[in-house]
Amino acid sequence: MTHLDGTTPPSSAVTDGEPTAPTAPRRLLPLLRTQGGPHGNRSWATCLYRCGNACDHPEPNTSGNEHVQDVIRAAIARRTVLGGAAAGAGAMVLGGFATTSAAAAGGYDAGASPAGAVPGKQVSTDPFTPVAPNRRDALTVPAGYRLNVVAAWGDPVVPGAPAFDVYRQTPEAAAQQFGYNNDYVGVISLSTTKALLVCNHEYTNEEVMFPAGEYTAEEIRRIALMSHGMSVLAVERPTATAGHWVRSASSNVRYNRRITGETPFVVDGPAAGHDRLKTSADPTGKRVLGTLNNCAGGTTPWGTVLSGEENFNQYFGTAGAIPATHAASYRRYGISASSERGWYQTWDRFDLAKEPNEPNRFGWIVEVDPLAPDEPPVKHTMLGRFKHEGANIAIAPNKKVVAYMGDDERGDYLYRFISTDTYRSGTDAASRRHNKQLLSKGALYVARLTGDGLEDGVWDGTGQWILLCTDTVSNVPGMSVADVLIDTRLAADKMGPTRMDRPEDVEPNPVNGRVYAALTNNSNRGSSYPADEANPVTRSMVRSAPGAELTAASGNRNGYVLEMQPVGGHTGGTFVWRLLLVCGDPAAPETYFAGYPKDKVSPISCPDNVAFDSRGNLWVSTDGNVIGSNDGIFRVPVDGPHRGKVESFLTTPIGAEACGPLITHGDRTVWVAVQHPGEGGTFAEPIGLWPHTHRYPRPGVAVVWKA
Ligand code: FEO
Ligand code: CA
Ligand code: CA
């Protein structure tokens, strides 16, 4: 492949780069902090730029929901004993779960399934040797697998984009090039050898991106705004069975597109045009410039991509006074006058005193049609406003569209949307036009999970979807439909949902019909509020460095994967649930891998994104490993004799988290977005240089396949 400087890197640079001593001039940026953040291995820069130091602020959720059991720690000890006794037989302790078929799971529409399995070298069935925990500055895959970088920060996206020059970057150039910190990965197939790659660009890390002294603060902000958003990029492979994908120069580049922090969006749904969405620049309340902090997402059965606006609060601030009318709402979303990004100094719309409604225009699920490059993307108010990780769709037997969503904040909630209208199969223009309206009308719910007690030795119970509103009727006392949708967190607080340990990606498994949620961690669990059966861990074993002893830390540091079985299908009112994984080092007593023998699983910490291959295996990417390794991607069977067998498929370079993942093309291709490689250093003092094409690291998207 060719990189942004026009050269073709040696294959070792992208397949297996070992740490390379940086040779760039060493100048410290004025903002340089000591490496190592306040939250485990997470660098201070990740904390600051990605989520605005959310863990250093009080939790925005001060509601008193669901303080059920204060005896969980003792119960964990008991469950550990039971779990140990049941190791290998844990799959039998299934409570109310159906164990196999999609029919038992409520009949997931096969139309939403990924491409069917084909014989050959599939990652779904291949018995690879798991990648050992490591701290390499490399994307490391199992023996026998190969990889290449498809696109990285600065690569041209829009035809005619200027060549990237890190010393002469401009907002105009950034708006045409692959943005920073790729997160969600979607792939829309156009033929057996051609596709569109759709990526989110979640946030910028100015310390790593910009050489010190080359740009003013104003220039940095303007370039950073354009480096956010999304990319649509034509890609291709040489043959219909190859795993090697590259950027395409075919006529499909007509679809190539950058969506930035200034791209016009249409607002739809019940809150569109509401007074609370109007600003001086947009008196209609229906046209917003840009999308920010786009984290995970989902590709819909009708071929569009959904993307979650997550930690949007950090972009707003003011030197003035926050209007009293907005204070309660701001507080619940963590919006405050202080903003280290300082964007309000460049743009009035990010100044809370000048444009107090502008934050109400972020925090939504957005929908982009990669096949309609001239069509403005849409912000869907019907799916509520919170720190959206993403949204993933299931089609119910009655053809209603169901979206599952997580609000990624300590102690916040799981959500579900059900459409009013029904899905039309078919790829004709009329069907697509119809389906693109499905997220505009429907009903929004929040989840309450109730444990059935620890006597059974399993973290499990039942769940209920609590209606917040439909597009015409509010179910929340004292709040209109628009208020429920704009202040979804405040609305949910009134309805008694369960406070969860940072719900990230939530996705239905198209093979078994169950829904899987990554609950990444919660340092406050057990201190700010008690544990419950769905969020049981208040004391975790962590490791400060590779090979170091495990030590105890307060709270849930390693996260869970929650498995939910809808009762009556995806549109039913209830579900049964259990924790599939309690993550961490298998040597830690609190860990649990669906009962699979602990000596046969890979350590896993901080699950973030989930995906499925065509056989229904769960794939989990992680963010923020606190057990002495880089992050990675793991394969986990969820049915059959190997249910719970966690195996590390790859590890990301130093400083990076693993995003995506996505398994495509008959389980032959694994897509991974390598986000924030080298984070924790600076441009002058990088701690990593992946993908080893330049003297600075570059976030990028890679594919992995069996050689
Ligand atoms: Fe952007 Fe919740 O991770
Ligand atoms: Ca139980
Ligand atoms: Ca994420």
UniProtKB/TrEMBL annotation:
Pfam families xref list: PhoX
Positions of region (Disordered): 1-37
Residue stretches of biased makeup (Low complexity): 19-34
InterPro entries for the chain: PhoX, TAT_signal
Ranges in coiled-coil conformation: none
Official protein name in the record: PhoX family phosphatase
Source organism per UniProt: Nocardioides zeae
Organism lineage string: Bacteria, Bacillati, Actinomycetota, Actinomycetes, Propionibacteriales
